[in-house]
Write a structure and sequence with these properties.
The protein is built from 22 helices and 16 strands. The chain folds into three domains: about 110 residues, no CATH class; about 250 residues, Aspartate Aminotransferase, domain 2 (3-Layer(aba) Sandwich), CATH 3.40.640; about 120 residues, Aspartate Aminotransferase, domain 1. Helix content is about 45%, strand content about 15%. It starts with 8 loop residues before the first helix and ends with a strand. The chain has about 525 residues and is of the alpha/beta class.
Length: about 525
Amino acid sequence: MTDFRHPLPYKAALSVSTSTALRALPRVDEIAAALSHDFNANNTPSQSTLVICARDAIAATRQQLLREASPDTEAQDAESQDDSSSPNESSLAEQLRAKVLSVARKSLKVQRDAASWPRRVINGTGIVIHTGLGRARLSRAATEAARMAAMEACALEVDLESGERGHRDAALATLLREITGCEDATVCNNCAAATLLSLSTLAAGKEAICARGELVEIGGGFRMPDVMRQSGAILREVGSTNKTRLADYEEALGEATGVLLKVHPSNFRIVGFSEAVELPELVQLGSAHGVAVMEDLGSGVLLDLSRWGLPGEPTVQERVRSGADVICFSGDKLLGGPQCGIIVGKRESIARIRSNPLMRAVRCDKMTLAALHATLIAYRDNSDDFALARQEIPTLRAITEAPENVKARAGRLARRLRGIPATIKVLSSQAQAGAGALPTQTLPSWAVVLQPHSLTIDEFARRLRASTPSVWGRVHNGALWLDIRTISDEEVAACAEALAQILPQDPLSERREIGSNFSAP
């Protein structure tokens, strides 16, 4: 229910009792009718929506009147019960009606904004894979594939040759075998589900041995020990927070062991006096004792990012070559596809995972599978460090784009903004991959930095977020920074238009020295 930050001004001014004010509140149908007059016949909200907003606004005002009632007004209520209507009551009713109508209009705007969800956003934060803004942006091919799957009947779980029912992930498994070298693969709805599903299959009722320093917490408060507990696996911690040796795993092995688990640290790093067991060592140990080895790789990447000055993240192909039985990774992070959890590994383990009853609860829908398939197609040609994927997949393009190209785009946006009442500069910046990927590494970037002449920075940022399209930047050192690494060429014009709506062009600015409010390379 709506609440107010400030006391009602008219009660004290009119010196009326609480009971009088409550009697003066407008009727629900009166406010609903007034709301409907704000719209033409083509876009009037439903009557039920108008009534809900009117009822909530009246109830909120009534509650505030009761909260602000004092002993003096209560005594006045008792004295005035038999009095005839005060000459101030008609004025009070008008003011209350205006207040209730204002609150109802704000409530209605919130409801209509919610109805238009999701809102288009231009991401100027410099965080390429921004969880709050939808993570990876799909390629055009993936978007078209998802659209086709949504609008048309598609061969989701049938074999076109035999006409019999098959697995919905069969085509994806073929692609993942070709790209990663795995024996088999399957897909579920996200990486946390992939880990839960794999542990449930390999280690339910048995021990999962994991290094203490790898018992991570990912976004939203989900912790690896909780996921393991939910899967039915029994956690067996080994080593210390900063150091775990192969002997620690070996000592913990026994008849109760179900799996040796390695977890990628994702959004944090332990540096300095530290030691960890590499996956190939774990695989050798597991093979010697007949125990499965599994890795939650987190983000997962298919190309070596060190060529672009980024730290050497382990690729999925490297992990497959290590011989691990199961490797789980995300589809909507560094891969650049839709939200899903990808599971690759040994044929026997994947077959067991695919037949787990839990798979039905976490399987992907046809649109996700179609988008993932189109994304993976771009990775089939791995010549020249996956040049096709880097060109077509927005996430890879943003992460690997040359800084000089980002700088040129920043200059184009800044020049489009000449004349708006703000100080504009193009400055070097630092972007991030985001979503727990490459947490300690920044990407060299460039930003358009704005300081409006007549708005506070916080108000400027708020208005931009509320604009159409919504524009998100970051506030730093008293200015709004729009990092251009995460704003594409196609978005420059829309971004400039949104800024111009918030800061209308100042005609006098054309006569100023450009250097006084504009700085660009």
